[in-house]
Amino acid sequence: MDKVSLVKQCQSGDREAFGILYQTYFAPMREVVAYYIHNDDIEQDVLHDGFLIAYTSIGSLKNGAKIEAWLTSIMKNLSLQYLKDESSHISVPMSDTAIADNAITSADNARELTWEELDKIIDKLPEGYGKVFRLAVLDGLSHKEIAALLGIAPHSSS
To answer: Which residues does the chain have with pLDDT short of 70?
Structure first.
């Protein structure tokens, strides 16, 4: 079944068609959400909410051929909204701010990191710091853009 007719069936209220749509786009939409959200439980919540929005709003989709782009927009916007909402809840325990005893010796034995190692290191950062780091370093956003995206002051992200 092509995506245009699938969307039309969904718009007519066919639940089975929406189930097919869900199964078809679950994996790609999970990748979209996982790009922004690095917590499996939160990722599942955002995906669930995104598909609920899609289910209730699919009637507003005028061009069924653009279903994937439409779903991607929903998932991206929900992910960014979650990040923005969570940025106001950032707290860092004092124990997390201490410099590790082996930091100096580790610097002497420096080597290049793999992407997987870098990702694991970023995941160990407090959530807000990790978000800002990913947006600034990996996505190349300016601190002004990050501040607008997360709803924080520009100097907070820098």
So the answer is: 89-111, 157-158
pTM of the model: 0.57
Burial profile 82-112: b = 16 or more Cβ within 10 angstroms, e = fewer: bbeebbeeeeeeeeeeeeeeeeeeeeeeeee
Q: Count CB neighbours of 59 within 10 A.
A: 10
Instruction: Catalogue the long-range contacts made by 59-66 (C-beta closer than 8 Å, 24 or more residues apart).
Output: 59/11, 61/7, 61/11, 64/3, 64/4, 64/5, 64/6, 64/7, 64/8, 65/3, 65/4
**Is residue 76 helix, strand or coil?**
helix
Alpha-carbon 116 to chain mean position = 18
Q: Which residue has the tokens 């994937």?
A: 68
The pLDDT tens digits for 3-12 are 899 999 999 9
| pLDDT tens figures, 65-81 | 999 999 999 999 999 99
- Rg (the chain; Cα; Å): 20
